[in-house]
């Protein structure tokens, strides 16, 4: 694929070199996205997150066809919870919390059914999966090593939830010098007002944390090969 390319975006177009760009799919896990998972157990409507699945799948397919790097993340903890701070387990005073048995196995525990990525976006062999104990994908993980090894400078960001794990990761990436394009229809929040505010914050002040576009705008450029 020739480059560089430029995608219509806010606050201005996002220019990127495809060979130096990776798709980051954040925490599209059953516990967050599927009905009956941890997110729904907390009283949330998962429909806004489900709406991000299909556009994310289309972008994922396009990156795979173009043989561009894809990286997935999952939030969760070791079975003995040794990497889960007591404060995280206690927060919310939940009847069923991290490590407790739930409909999809122990909540947010690595290796459990609910912890894994949904079938629609299942990683292919060779696509790195970053298991993270916190909200940000760079904290206590080898994500930066993976990106540097692949020569990545730009990230196309998708996943959930917009105001928590997506936002934290974009902020971490920004501090490390990565350029981030967040696809508005490929990220989701349980709360519409949080979604709107989080998107505005990313592109505010000349793109203080990054750029915002849509899957359609990206795919038109990526698959059309237009500079």
Q: Give the neighbour order of strands across the main sheet.
A: 7-4-3-8-9-10
**Number of DSSP helices?**
9
| Number of β-strand runs | 10
Based on the coordinates given, report the CATH architecture.
3-Layer(aba) Sandwich
CATH level-4 homologous superfamily: Isochorismatase-like
User: Mean pLDDT score, rounded?
Assistant: 96
CATH topological fold name: Rossmann fold
User: How would you classify the helix and strand content by structural class?
Assistant: alpha/beta
Q: For this structure, what is the CATH class?
A: Alpha Beta
Estimate the strand proportion.
Answer: 15-25%
Biggest pleated sheet: 6 strands, parallel
Order of helices and strands: EEEHHHHEHEEEHEHEHEH
Task: Produce a short descriptive summary.
This protein is α/β, with parallel strands linked by helices and 227 residues long. The chain has a single domain, classed as Rossmann fold (3-Layer(aba) Sandwich), CATH 3.40.50.850.
């Amino acid at each position: 694929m020739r480059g560089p390319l430029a995608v219509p975006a806010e606050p201005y177009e996002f220019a990127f070199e495809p060979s130096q760009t990776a798709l980051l799919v954040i925490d599209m896990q059953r516990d967050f996205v599927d009905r009956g998972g941890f997110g729904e157990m907390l009283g949330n409507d998962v429909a806004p997150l489900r709406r991000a699945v299909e556009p994310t799948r289309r972008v994922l397919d396009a990156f795979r066809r173009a043989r561009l790097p894809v990286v997935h993340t999952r939030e969760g903890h070791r079975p003995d919870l040794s990497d889960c701070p007591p404060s995280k387990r206690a927060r919310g005073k939940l009847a069923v919390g991290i490590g407790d048995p739930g409909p999809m196995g122990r909540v947010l525990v690595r290796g459990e059914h609910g912890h894994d990525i949904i079938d629609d976006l299942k990683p292919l062999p060779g696509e790195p999966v970053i298991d993270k104990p916190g909200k940000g994908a760079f904290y206590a993980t080898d994500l930066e090593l993976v990106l540097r090894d692949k020569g990545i400078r730009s990230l196309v960001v998708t996943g959930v939830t917009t105001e928590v794990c997506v936002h934290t990761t974009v902020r971490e990436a920004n501090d490390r010098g990565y350029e981030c394009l967040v696809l508005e229809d490929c990220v989701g929040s349980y709360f519409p007002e949080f979604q709107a505010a989080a998107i505005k914050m990313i592109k505010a002040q000349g793109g203080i944390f990054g750029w915002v576009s849509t899957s359609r705008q990206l795919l038109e450029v990526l698959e059309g090969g237009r500079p």
